[in-house]
Write a structure and sequence with these properties.
The protein is α/β, with parallel strands linked by helices. The two termini are about 35 Å apart. It binds pyridoxal-5'-phosphate. Pyridoxal-5'-phosphate (PLP) binds next to helix 12.
Length: about 700
């Protein structure tokens, strides 16, 4: 498997409020975007307060079809609030993303602490620095805010339940291994002694070398070999607390043997297969047949082995992970309760228990619905922290035990919000609406039938003409197949069919109730917008596991998005598309977009995609890593901390073992032969070679304008 030398570089924002003393969780009703401390603009405008906007009169103001003129009058009164409602931005984006008065997406990287950037302006200014789209923008301040929120929620829960233990979070490196990201995470995590979790040997190497925070933890998960176990144990000599978590039965012997060989008493943990089952996509991460973890009988056998090896006092941690993106708080509560009892029993059996690691699972509200839908969650970070703390306090109080240090391995809840992928739309494919010409009388019967069908469409009569139009179009195609209809006549029939569909659709937009048979009409007639993006590279989970990410235009949000579209990517794969979008009722198949203008680019943003996407992206069609920038808010605007240029074609070709010099040489030889044969002129051959050479050092994506 070929992979790159450098890989390229998603909760509802939680309900906390930063006070002078630190973060304090508040109720969702109090959670508002606070622009009271805007950062003064430098090159970029600071967004204005959101409270001076007009309220929408209706939630959906569809234009009314004018059958006399055959047109729809322009609706000018589209408000920013309507865009907010349509794209549900406050549901999934608060407090980081909102819309400003000029209709652009605003980013408030420091959450409630003030200061914001106009995303559209940021993108334009980055483009001015030769950073082409698609562009992944990482907002370091969002990462810092997420880390602070999680720690503040646990601090608040610990205070609320008078919990005598601490919280020491760790970040699972698998979620985003990019160097600049991990370095920032370690830096921001320092005040909270935030640690790292490794799920593999290479991730262990990152964790050991990157984490320099005293008192923080390294949790060593995943499959292990002798080298992995010994490396983790030896790291103790560097003053690091690397806890080796035994996830497989065989690892117990491995750890015992390594300890004997090295003469080191390790700190070890056990991953339990809980009965409390996760749900949704990652539901099989728990239960007896889960890939990782020890069943209860296996745990008891492990305890006996450790006792015999005089290492029972090394067993200090109980870990479980019931899956990622757990949507329901009741599932989490069950798991915390079960784990609490196992923890207590391990102590009773003689283990020197000190830590409880609740794994990942803290969800992200991708659709902003606050429900148990797979793309959402019915709890906030504070509820989560409260439940972990309360469950352990209960279990330990009953058993008269000291409470453990609490660890969570929250990945997506930390990493998702900080990155935004911005991409441009290269063009569209639309069902065009042709003007319906009056009949001359010489037309084929099938054309006249379609024409009459068109005339018969009215607000009271939609279903019947739709059925007729479909039938006549099918008949027209059959007639063409048998040679009874000419190509121009077939074209006329098809245009009339689509004109009927347009007219019916315009009436449907005015109706509160859409007949079931006509619900698909909008999908059939939707536009296809071509994205300058590879779904396989930049949003692999959207393709592989139907993960939903909020997607919306980042500008023109004071203008009604009158078109409905699916998004198609640059790859030649029919799967390379996005036709599932967040919606209040679950999922919708079309995104509301604006008509493209020939003189202006059109930018969409994919949000909450900072977890897992970058590393899982693949090189389908050889579209490489996108350009990535790290941005930090400054008192004057923002600073570009790092630019990680996306792959060049030379680089992606190198991943599949092509040497760019060899390729170029081969092209040179071919042009020489073609010149000799008089197939190409010298001038043409030079232009071809220059293009070829320039492409090799260029971005793998298209340049739009
Ligand atoms: C063992 C372990 N810990 C933590 C995580 C992170 O989970 P999440 O991103 O849901 O926080 C995962 C991911 O699946 C995992 O396998």
């Amino acid at each position: 498997m070929v992979r790159r030398a450098t890989q390229k570089g998603t909760s509802n924002p939680e309900l906390d409020h930063k006070t002078a003393q630190g973060f304090v969780a508040i109720d969702s009703s109090e959670s508002k975007v606070n622009h009271s401390l805007p950062v003064a603009p430098q090159s970029l405008p600071v967004s204005s307060p959101a409270n001076n906007r007009m309220k929408p009169t209706k939630s959906k103001d569809f234009p009314v079809y004018d059958s006399q003129k055959g047109t729809i009058p322009e609706v000018s009164s589209w408000s920013i609030e309507q865009s907010e409602e349509l794209y549900r931005i406050s549901g999934w984006g608060d407090p980081y993303f909102s819309i400003n008065d000029v209709g652009h997406v605003t980013v408030s990287p420091k959450g409630l602490r003030g200061g914001s950037l106009d995303l559209f302006d940021v993108v334009n200014s980055l483009k001015g620095r030769n950073l082409e789209l698609p562009l992944l923008i990482r907002f370091s301040d969002i990462l810092e805010d997420r880390i602070e929120r999680l720690n503040a929620c646990f601090a608040k829960a610990i205070a609320r339940y008078s919990y005598a233990g601490k919280y020491r979070g760790v970040f699972p490196v698998k979620c985003n291994q990019q160097r600049h990201f991990v370095q920032k995470l370690v830096e921001f995590g320092k005040p909270h002694q935030f640690g790292l979790e490794a799920g593999s040997k290479p991730e262990l190497l990152i964790a050991l070398a990157s984490l320099n925070t005293s008192g923080s933890l390294i949790i060593c998960n995943g499959y292990k070999d002798r080298e992995y176990v010994e490396t983790a144990m030896l790291a103790q000599k560097l003053g690091q607390t690397a806890i080796v978590v035994m996830e497989q039965v065989e690892e117990v012997e491995q750890v015992i043997a390594a300890s004997k060989r090295l003469g080191i008493k390790p700190v070890i943990g056990l991953r339990a297969k809980l009965c409390a089952k996760g749900m949704g996509r990652w539901g099989t991460s728990a239960g007896d047949r889960a890939k990782f973890g020890l069943t209860i009988p296996e745990i008891l056998a492990a305890i006996e082995k450790l006792r015999k090896a005089d290492l029972l006092d090394s067993l200090q941690l109980l870990h479980f992970h019931i899956g990622s993106q757990i949507s329901s708080i009741s599932v989490l509560k069950d798991a915390f309760r079960e784990a609490g009892q196992i923890y207590v029993e391990l102590s009773r059996l003689g283990a020197n228990m000190k830590y409880l690691d609740v794994g990942g699972g803290l969800g992200v509200d991708y659709d902003g619905s606050k429900t148990t839908y797979a793309a959402s969650k019915n709890y906030n970070m504070q509820n989560y922290a409260n439940d972990v703390v309360a469950a352990m306090k209960d279990a330990c109080t009953q058993a008269k035990l000291e409470v453990p240090t609490l660890i969570s391995e929250s990945g997506r809840a930390i990493a998702s919000h900080q990155s935004v992928l911005v991409f441009d739309i290269l063009g569209s494919s639309d069902v065009v609406e042709d003007h319906v010409e009056p009949l001359t009388g010489d037309e084929h019967l099938i054309i006249r039938n379609l024409h009459e069908t068109y005339d018969s469409i009215s607000s009271e009569n939609l279903q019947e003409p739709f059925n007729d139009a479909e039938q006549f179009k099918d008949e027209a195609i059959s007639l063409f197949g048998f040679g009874y209809l000419s190509l121009p006549e077939r074209a006329q029939a098809e245009k009339l069919f689509w004109s009927c569909c347009h007219k019916i659709q315009d009436y449907l937009h005015q109706m509160d109730f859409v007949p079931e048979e006509l619900t698909d009409l909008e999908t059939v007639m939707a536009s296809i917008y071509y994205m300058n993006l590879s779904v396989f590279q930049s949003a692999p989970d959207s393709w592989a596991i139907d993960q939903l990410f909020p997607i919306m235009p980042i500008h023109r949000l004071n203008e009604e998005p009158v078109k409905r579209a699916t998004l198609a990517d640059l790859t030649c794969d029919s799967d390379g598309k996005i036709d599932r979008f967040i919606d209040i009722r679950g999922v919708k198949s079309l995104l509301e977009v604006h008509p493209l203008k020939s003189t202006e680019p059109y930018y969409l943003g994919m949000f909450l995609n900072g977890a897992y996407q970058e590393i899982m992206g693949n090189l389908h069609n050889l579209f490489g890593d996108t350009n990535t920038v790290h941005i930090q808010l400054t008192p004057k605007g923002y600073e570009i901390e790092h630019v990680v240029k996306g792959d060049t074609m030379k680089e992606v070709l190198g991943y599949v073992q092509y040497d760019s010099e060899d390729l170029l040489e081969s092209m040179r030889k071919r042009t020489e032969v073609a010149m000799e044969n008089g197939q190409i002129t010298l001038e043409e051959s030079q232009i071809l070679l220059q293009h070829y050479e320039r492409c090799l050092s260029g971005y793998t994506y298209l340049s739009s304008m």
